[in-house]
Design brief:
Helix content is 40%, strand content 23%. It is of the alpha/beta class. The strands form three sheets. Strands 2-1-3-4-5 form a five-stranded parallel β-sheet, sandwiched between helices. The chain has a five-stranded antiparallel β-sheet with strand order 9-8-7-6-13, with no helix packed on it. Helix 2 runs parallel beside helix 3, helix 3 packs parallel to helix 4 and helix 4 packs parallel to helix 8. The C terminus is likely disordered.
Length: 243
């Protein structure tokens, strides 16, 4: 049975999440702090398929929890819960490594749909990794000796496989689909992250810095993910071998 870890310190909300997710036949577990969530995932076999993570927690925040997990190489899908109207929380959540977000208050049907979508994509990636003779690639992009596997959420280069979060993969897809074009920070906020209000675009810059560590030979002197001063970014695929 699919197990979901709920990290929420408001008991009434945690109880409601647990009741409704168990009604959808998910096995659920609740912890109240970020520290408890990290401890829970340190056991040899955590058996957690997805985390519903609140931003505002006592002690470590949801941002810190997500960032620590990603630093440790734990890519459990994370659905982050944010305060209504706080676009900065959304951006910071993606920057920390969240895969999706949902503002409070939220509709139960939307929460369940978002959870289902994350679980399907994660399971799809696992199946692709374990299949000895995979089907011909239909969701990949190759450039300059690199390969982005959007379905498996992976970047392959130099004999290494680097995991991507869903938002990292979504941003890379958006950029490569517009190869050579200037993409504004506003477009990224609205089209990739779904934020339709003013927010601090410096968080996007920080997010791009992390992506450059994945795709560039020298992140300080990028050749593929270029900054267009005062506007945004442009992706250039040198040595491109196909889409």
């Amino acid at each position: 049975m699919t197990r979901i870890l709920i990290v929420e310190d408001e008991q009434h909300l945690a109880d409601g999440l647990r009741f409704n997710l168990e009604a959808e036949c998910y096995d659920t577990e609740v912890v109240e702090t970020g520290e408890a969530a990290l401890d829970r995932l340190q056991v040899p076999d955590p058996s957690v398929d997805l985390m519903v993570l609140d931003v505002m927690l006592p002690g470590l925040s949801g941002f810190q929890v997500a960032a620590k997990l990603r630093e440790q190489g734990d890519y459990v899908p994370i659905l982050m819960l944010t305060a209504r109207g706080r676009a900065d929380d959304v951006v910071k959540g993606f920057e920390a490594g969240a895969d999706d977000y949902l503002p409070k208050p939220f509709e139960l049907a939307v929460l369940i749909a978002r959870i289902g979508a994350l679980l399907r994509r994660h399971a799809w990636g696992r199946r692709q990794q374990s299949t000895p003779t995979p089907a011909p690639p239909v969701d990949r992009y190759e450039f300059a000796g690199r390969e982005i596997d959007f379905a498996a959420l992976e970047l392959r280069r130099d004999g290494r496989t680097l995991p991507l979060t869903l938002m990292e993969a979504n941003l890379l897809r958006y950029l490569v689909q517009r190869e050579g074009q200037v993409v504004s920070r506003k477009d990224i906020l609205e089209q990739v992250w779904g934020v339709h209000e003013d927010t601090d675009t410096r968080a996007i810059d920080n997010f791009v810095v992390r992506l450059r560590r994945h795709i560039e030979d020298d992140a300080a002197s990028p050749k593929h993910l270029l900054t267009v001063r005062s506007v945004g970014y442009r992706f250039v695929a040198e040595g491109n071998v196909g889409r």
